Backbone:
């Protein structure tokens, strides 16, 4: 089955800095890579996703890049703000049939004012 | 108007007891899931149902028994609770179709076994 590794496990930045979280996946058949944000005590919520036919996707201050050859994808957050502080999860799945998302172990991002 | 709702939100019980968590979604989704989030925040799939039919059972002990009376509901019953069952259990749903796109999570049910 799919295995997703996520690094770092914790990340502390100053407000205004950029933050990068990296994930690798094992199953070359996976073609869907979402990122979820979970604030303390809240549910995980999708913030951005990318499919394997695209190398990069941006949405305001967040962007995701995908390298299919290396089986590697990353989340980039620019101009970080204290409200970006949360646990971020990457995930991977095959968009076919009833495959489920396999999540990475999460990265706790702390943005200090 | 919560899209995916779970009850109860908090559950504290003794080892050996049996408990249930209920989940309902009003999004018209066909597929529903149970995920377990342990103390280290790791999110792990437990079960997946599509239109009331069990699709995935990820080597979960048979003390855990999901039940889907209709496609809008997926309940989780746990027998003979153990300390290691303490976690937050998230119900989720995803839109109909042949692919698993965005997951819509409920607020979670925090289970504490004493």
Residues:
């Amino acid at each position: 089955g799919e295995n997703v590794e996520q690094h770092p496990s914790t990340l502390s930045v100053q407000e205004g800095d950029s933050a990068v979280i990296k994930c690798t996946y094992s199953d070359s058949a996976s073609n869907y890579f979402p990122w979820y944000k979970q604030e303390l005590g809240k549910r995980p919520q999708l913030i951005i996703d990318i499919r394997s036919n695209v190398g990069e996707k941006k949405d305001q201050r967040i962007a995701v890049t995908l390298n299919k050859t290396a089986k590697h994808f990353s989340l980039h957050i620019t101009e970080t703000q204290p409200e970006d502080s949360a646990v971020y999860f990457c995930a991977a799945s095959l968009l076919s049939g009833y495959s489920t998302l396999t999540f990475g172990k999460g990265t706790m991002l702390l943005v200090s004012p | 108007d919560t899209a995916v709702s779970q009850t109860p939100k908090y559950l504290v019980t003794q080892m050996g007891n049996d408990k249930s968590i209920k989940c309902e979604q009003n999004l018209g989704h066909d597929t529903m899931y149970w995920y377990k989030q342990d103390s280290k925040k790791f999110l792990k799939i437990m079960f997946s149902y599509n239109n009331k039919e069990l699709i995935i059972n990820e080597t979960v002990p048979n003390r855990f028994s999901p039940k889907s009376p209709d496609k809008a509901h997926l309940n989780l019953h746990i027998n003979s609770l153990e300390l290691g069952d303490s976690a937050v259990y998230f119900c989720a749903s995803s839109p109909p179709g042949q692919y698993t796109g965005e997951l819509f999570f409920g607020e979670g049910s925090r289970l504490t076994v004493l």
